[in-house]
Amino acid sequence: MTSYNKTQYDEIADGYDVLDRLPWRETEAHSFRTAIGPMLSPDMNVVEFACGSGFYSQKILEWGCKSITGSDISPAMVDGAKQRLSEAVAEGKARFVVGDATKPRSLAPDGTEGYFDIALGVWLLNYAESKEQLTKMFETAALNLKDNGVFCTVALHPTDNLEERVAAHEKSPLTKVMPRHTYLEKLASGEGWLFKVTLPGDTTFMTFHLTKEIYEEAAHLGGFKGKLEWRPEIWKDEDLKKRYASWMTGADWDVRREHPHMSVLVVHKN
């Protein structure tokens, strides 16, 4: 993982939570819960990589599990997560540590491998700039999961035709909706693109969009031998248009649906 992925989040930690107030977050959370909800049970221990300020760590406890262990490369983000879930931390239901998902290690309380039932990686995989780094992220998840464990992630819309997506994001309305994606350059490896994400208030950060083929190859190389599914984003309800009318016109929403922002990737370890 590139060095700026740590420093950029230390610097924008205070502004990053604006994501929680965007219309996409509501659709994203609904899509993610639809995918992961049926898998959760009160006796499960869950680990989350790239936990940020704890948005999904909090959700997972609300949706039903025994404990959540969160990890992020940014100490500032980890501090924010501890503050957000301070009560759960005090009760022993949540713990947070600084960690780099491209450096496989156990995050279990006792340091053992294969401790967790489910691993989460919401907006984790897009910080890999190569298949090699992506494979390390999958290795980290596999190392922490039980043999029947599942890795659930929110990732960018899967496609092997990134040039078509780049062209679409260079035109209105995708040049103005938030979060705004500005594709900057194709990676020399040909595995994907570097792009900039812009949030309201001009908070920005850099990330990567690798091809669908690279994601799937990395999952297999990283230790996942079971079923792999790309689940589409699910719009919660039509009322979303009314509640966020100030963000986008009806025509803009139609274009947005034609170019999905994200997908939920569900991978079974075995």
TrEMBL record:
Keywords: Methyltransferase, Transferase. Gene3D superfamilies: Vaccinia Virus protein VP39. GO terms for molecular function: methyltransferase activity. One of its GO terms (biological process) is methylation. Residues 46-149 form the Methyltransferase domain. InterPro entries: Methyltransf_25 (IPR041698), SAM-dependent_MTases_sf (IPR029063). Pfam families: Methyltransf_25 (PF13649). This is Methyltransferase domain-containing protein.
